[in-house]
Amino acid sequence: MSDDAIPPSEGGRAAPPPRTDAPGAVRQPSPVPGHGAAAADDRRLSAGLLLGVLGVVFGDIGTSPLYAMRAALLHFTEGGIDRAEILGILSMIAWALILTVTVKYIFFILRADNRGEGGILALMALAQRVVRNERGRWLVSLIGIAGAALFFGDGTITPAISVLSAVEGLKVIEPHFEDFVVPLSVAVILVLFLPQYRGTGAMGAVFGPVMALWFGVLALLGLWGIAQRPEVLEALSPHHAAGFAVAHPVATFVTLGSVVLAVTGAEALYADMGHFGRRPIRIAWLSFVLPALLLNYCGQGALLLGDPAKLENPFYLLSPGWLRPFLVVLATAATIIASQAMITGAYSIARQCIQLGFLPRLIVRHTSETEEGQIYMPQVNWGLLIGVLILVLSFKTSDALAAAYGLAVTGTFLCTSALAFLVFRRQFGWPLPFVVLVFGPLFLLDAGYFLSNVLKIPEGGYVPLVIGGALYLLMTTWHRGRELLFARFRQDSLPLRSFLARLPQSRTIRVPGIAVFMTGQADYVPNALLHNLKHNKVLHERVLFVTVLNEDVPAVGPERRREVTELAPGIYRVLIRYGFQESPNIPRELEQLRGEGIAWDPMQASYFLGRETLVAAVVPKLSRWRQWLFGLMSRNAVPATEFFRIPSDRVVELGVRVAI
Description:
Layout lengths: L11 E2 L21 H7 L5 H10 L2 H4 L5 H6 L9 H26 L11 H10 L4 H34 L1 H5 L7 H13 L7 H28 L9 H10 L1 H11 L6 H6 L1 H4 L1 H29 L7 H4 L6 H32 L9 E2 L8 E2 L1 H18 L2 H30 L4 H23 L7 H31 L3 H7 L6 E10 L8 H10 L1 E13 L7 H4 E7 L2 E8 L7 H6 L13 E11 L8 H12 L4 H4 L7 E9 L1
Parallel strand pairs: 1-5, 4-5, 4-8, 5-7, 8-9
Antiparallel strand pairs: 2-3, 6-7
Helix pairs in contact: 2-10, 2-15, 5-11, 5-15, 6-7, 6-19, 7-9, 7-17, 7-18, 7-19, 7-21, 9-18, 10-15, 10-17, 11-12, 12-20, 19-20, 19-21, 21-26
């Protein structure tokens, strides 16, 4: 293994959120859940803020009317669809929006914030704090990893199905355009992915107004359809869904796999909470987005009540012919925005996985000088682009891709419900009967969604399973390999206290300059220092042992960023803390040491990094194929110099063999 695995000697302690009982870790008080979101909710509610919420949070769920109603009713096309089926399916969609999005996410899950941040990994970090045994923490980690892996599967399918469903509107305008759907979809996807390196700041300025126009058009089209057949509003009563389920239990179970398409993007409400706070998300959903979606679905239902043959494309056929070209353009813009939100979400999740120790270092480029969260990750971007193009060229239609969509979404729903049960019970202290009463039915609903989508595995449901399974394997292998690497390092290394006690008697020559030793174990001597002493027989006048601690909070405040301790004359231990949404910059932090009384001169500093080579132990703790995979990931990780932003011309690398 090269220096690419963030091994202990490089300060990459980005393995699972640091435990307070781990060697070298510093005991810190746990953050107070809800504090950050509360602070975020204190911001002034404005039209600009609500527009931002519309543009970032609701893009995915806002484009579901393009395909959800049609996908759900396609199960009943044999022999024609009747009134009871239309009202029953419409009622199921309406109550999926109410129960899954409004009740589960808007009213409950948004309460579980990690210093204002949401998302599956933030929820995992909260759950890990309340688990008292190692096995429980590992199980929580597995659930979080599974949710993150499925998120990437969702992120690959969302742009493909959204863009295809929008461009398919051309077939409604002119059937001869059918042959152009796939090529145009490929062109739109390339236009979406290729400029990502430039950042999303300029595009973000128009996202909100476009999505506001989109939801307004959805509502108006829905009202137009309802005006033709007002009786469609009966479907808002749950007795239609219940009656349909009783009359057709098997068909209801099968249809759940398509009904869930109406709530894809619900996880984005939680994941984007840190950007806006829970209050603006709740207000935008309850006052504008939910009514617009319900109106549009009811409008499509009214259209089908009048003419079931219009199931060919009820979304576009709901509009008058003269409006359809404009609607195709608007829908394409909305799907691009929905896809953009998913792409940037994938960047964020990937960076969190790196910081929490679930993925090797990847390139992280900041596209804004003022916004920390605006990043571009080329490896993630190109991986998503290749995956999306393969899906578009393989499945060719949104109907075919609908079968592949549900498993990733419903799998993430299940992971979120399981972790939320634990957090609300132990972190928030809710009585067990109340937690069961709230999350029990929601978990069963999520399980119904998931099991229904299992039936689609032969039709395309294998796609998110393959993507998620491959990523899950990579993450667990990396996580386990790093644990073994740290354990081996602690076993073979010299305790720092013993080294410092012997130093005065060693008559080691001190030479001018500053030596920075990156180490992941603050209480042990870095191998790079021992090798330097062995070969060069000198120690620099000032020595800094720098340890990067990645904490299970989104960001670390400046007051806790650095902790400096003088261990011996001219020898210091420097702990630098980062949250899972931050990117390390070691030289910038070391510049601040002047304020700590340390004479820091970057031109006199040399950075010593360890370059570990993995070899199999006598009794290997990893299987041969996982050792190979871990080594492959290590060799292809971003060099420590680039990840930590260390000047490459100031680096000295020293190698050592490590057996695991």
